[in-house]
Amino acid sequence: MSNTDAAAAWADKRGFLPEVPFGDVRSTALPANGPRQSGYYLLRFDNDTYYVGESVDLRSRMGGHAAKWGSEITSVRLLPETASKQELKKHERFLTHELESKKVRLRNILNASITAGRDALDELLSDEEQARWILNPGEYNGGDQTPLKAIPEQEIRYSTAARRYTDAPHSTAVTEVLRMYLESCVPVPRATEFQYWGVSAGTFSGTHSPRRFCVNVGKMETFVVHEDKRVPGELFGFVNVRESVLFPNTRAKWGLRRRHPKLRIRTVQYDDAGSDMVRLQVRGLTELERLLADPQVTAAAARLVLDVMRKHFCVYTRYHCPQVVQFAYPEYPRPATPAASDTASVDNSPEPTTNDDAEITGKIMPHTESDDVAQLEEDECYWIVGSGSKRSGRNQVEDFMASGEWRMDPDPRYEPKVLDMRVGERIVVRTRKNVTDDVPFDRRDNSVSVMDFHLRGVITGNPGDGCSVKVNWEDTAPGPRRYYLYTSQDTVWPVARNVRPEWDDLIAFAFDDQDQDIDYFRNLPFWAPRFGDR
User: Fold this and answer.
1) Residue 483, SS3?
2) Which end of the chain is less enclosed by CB atoms within 10 A, N or C?
3) Checking phi first, is residue 12 left (phi over 0); if not, alpha (psi -120 to 50) or beta?
4) d(Cα 444, Cα 522) in Å, to the nearest integer?
5) Which three-class secondary structure state does DSSP give residue 489?
6) Where are the beta strands (DSSP E) in 395-491?
7) Rounded to an integer, what distance in angstroms lies between the CA atom of residue 464 and that of residue 321?
């Protein structure tokens, strides 16, 4: 079946309306004097590629696509549906995965495994060079002599994180594992460093397990080594790979199991990876080394990295620790940079807390997505922070207002995040508790987790102590606003727009004074058995 036939058959089955010439859609199917329509759409391009999307205003969305792609779009099929933005985005992921499974070539970046007609990597590697690399990544990388580039601001920022990395037990062995991964799974790693991939050090997972390092490509994590907080000194890690490359047949899966009997294979979701991805998780550096010495594993990991790099640059350059890369490549010294000790340093350790156990999970609720390393955009952080306990009497809301700052007691779990707060970013103070009174839905005798938002402002300064920032607070409202179900007790919780619908709703509520879409959260799988519609 051709690409066109497969897309048409799928759209027919899903109930999309008949094809409309794209140039006519805003005057015929979506006229300006008609009602605003939400729903889904399927664009067809002149090179027989497709794009499936959603919008709460289909007419406006068509205008945006016309400005971006113009005459490349030949036709569109619409599927109007009255739904919230959160529901539309959730079902868009399903539609994208389903259409991709039909072997239809898509231009989607998010949710799709491979993006047709886009190659952000071709500035460094031509199509022919990429084809040569994927045939034998280790051999290709072994012939590359690219030096490490100078990244002075990042070196200064992460001097303390780098020192802690080297001081930790087994740092030499951990670094060797990192180099094994870079050499066998990342295209010309020294050339692509910082622009296409980054590595962070010293962060914490959603269960507060310290991370020795996390390799990020695009908007996702690809290789992570953790400490086990339950077994001091023990390390574990995971590598994300293309499932179709890892398991071309059942025999390949049996073979992998025989070679790595302690391996855990898990299905997780990342927007950048699409549906064709699994996670391989093992305990111990020896097992990690064995995993990365397996050609079947590295071929699948390399394919995933290449696919994501071709979509777009890494969005985590903000959190990159260049010293860790220097440790991995001591024979390629970076150009000299000012010593960190000569500078008033702010040691920003990397990316926000993530949860590696499930797509919807959490200590209090599922406030993190397992797989987007929580994908914070570099310049779009919003900070949700706590106050001190009433019993301590320290760091209270009234103290913040009076002093023009926000402050917490020293805590190594959150200090890197406080150091990463930037001037101009917005911050809000909230408290969390469980309630049983005045709940605006049927709680069925269950207690309900809530956050009360008390104080909001803009960060005006970061002294670099890891415990405080200067804030220009807004005038206080008559009383706190209450947010239900989707809560966290973490002292510092960074979120961003356009990463996941739950965050979009939370930001709109806390920073834009919009109402919470409570029905959406009530009916998510995590809460539906207790609070959902029946």
Assistant:
1) strand
2) C
3) alpha
4) 12
5) coil
6) 405-407, 426-435, 448-461, 468-473, 481-484
7) 17
How many residues comprise the chain? 534
Q: Provide the β-strand partners of residue 432.
A: 451
Q: Is 230 exposed, middle or buried (0-12, 13-18, 19+ CB in 10 A)?
A: exposed
Whole-angstrom distance, CA of residue 50 vs CA of residue 100: 10
What is the CA 513 to chain-centroid distance, rounded?
A: 25
Contact of 449 with 436, CB cutoff 8 Å: no
What CA–CA distance (Å, rounded) separates 105 from 374?
27
Spatial separation of the C-alpha atoms in residues 532 and 523, rounded to whole Å:
5
Residues 78 and 29: beta-carbon distance below 8 Å: yes
Q: Give the residue among 26, 12, 22, 21 at the shortest CA–CA distance from 58.
A: 26
Q: Quick check: helix, strand or coil at residue 274?
A: strand
Decide if 99 contacts 60 (C-beta within 8 A): no
Q: How many CB atoms lie within 10 A of CB 242?
A: 23
Compute the distance between CA of residue 85 and CA of residue 66 in angstroms, rounded to an integer. Answer: 22
CB 170 within 8 A of CB 235: yes
The residues, any chain, with a CB within 8 Å of residue 36's CB and separated by 6 or more, are: 56, 57, 59
Nearest CA to 38 out of 13, 57, 12 is that of 57
Residue 352's closest CA among 299, 419, 397, 293? Answer: 419
The beta strands (E) that lie in 440-497 are given as 448-461, 468-473, 481-484, 492-496
Residue 495 three-state SS: strand
Tell me how far apart the terminal alpha carbons of the chain are, to the nearest angstrom: 41
Please report which helix (H) or strand (E) contains residue 257, including its range. Answer: helix 250-259
* Residues 17, 78 contacting (CB under 8 angstroms): yes
The identity of residue 9, as a single letter, is: A
- 3-state helix, strand and coil shares in percent for the chain, rounded to the nearest 5: 35, 20, 45
Measured CA to CA, the distance from residue 334 to residue 452 in angstroms comes to 48
265, 276 Cβ separation under 8 angstroms: no
| Closest CA relative to residue 256, chosen from 267, 245, 268, 272 | 245
